């Protein structure tokens, strides 16, 4: 099995590229891996058991409040970014969540 696909069939996010900045001694942080809107939609579809598109409101498409907790946990496990339930309620499409991820904090132990 390819290393870029997890056992649940959802592609792994690309690994962060090492910092190759020209300034020696620079400690610029390397970019974090993120999930695309399509990857988040696939997570939502898997959790809800029904197809959910990147621009669908995930709650209108079938995600329950318990599923919301599962989704935040799946995102944290996949890329180490902590989303809150309020984040998901305020950004109810996979595309909005994908845009939000780079602004959210890393989960403890993923820094």
Using brief descriptors, characterize the structure shown:
mainly alpha, globular, 36% helix, 111 residues, 4 helices
| Shape, per Cα inertia axes | globular
Q: Given the structure, what is the number of helices?
A: 4
Low-confidence stretches: 16-24
Helix/strand class: mainly alpha
Rg on CA atoms, Å: 15 Å
In what range is the share of β-strand residues?
under 5%
Average pLDDT metric: 81
Biggest sheet architecture? none
Fraction of helical residues? 25-40%
Q: N-to-C terminal Cα separation, in Å?
A: 28 Å
H and E order: HHHH
**Secondary structure tally: strands:** 0
Describe the protein.
This protein has 111 residues and is mainly alpha-helical. It is built from four helices and no strands. It has helices at 37-48, 65-79, 85-90, 94-100.
List the SSEs and their pairings.
Elements: H1 37-48, H2 65-79, H3 85-90, H4 94-100
Helix pairs in contact: 1-2, 1-4
Task: Compose a concise summary of this entry.
The chain is mainly α and about 110 residues long. It has helices at about 35-50, 65-80, 85-90, 95-100. It has 4 helices and no strands.
């Amino acid at each position: 099995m390819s290393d870029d696909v997890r056992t649940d069939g959802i592609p792994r996010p690309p690994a962060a590229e090492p910092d190759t900045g020209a300034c020696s001694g620079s400690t610029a942080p390397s970019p974090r891996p993120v999930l695309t809107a399509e990857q988040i939609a696939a997570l939502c579809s898997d959790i809800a058991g029904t197809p959910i598109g990147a621009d669908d409101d995930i709650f209108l498409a079938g995600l329950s409040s318990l599923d919301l907790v599962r989704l935040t946990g799946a995102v944290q496990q996949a890329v180490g970014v902590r989303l809150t339930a309020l984040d998901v309620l305020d950004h109810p499409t996979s595309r909005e969540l994908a845009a939000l991820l780079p602004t959210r904090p890393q989960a403890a132990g993923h820094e």
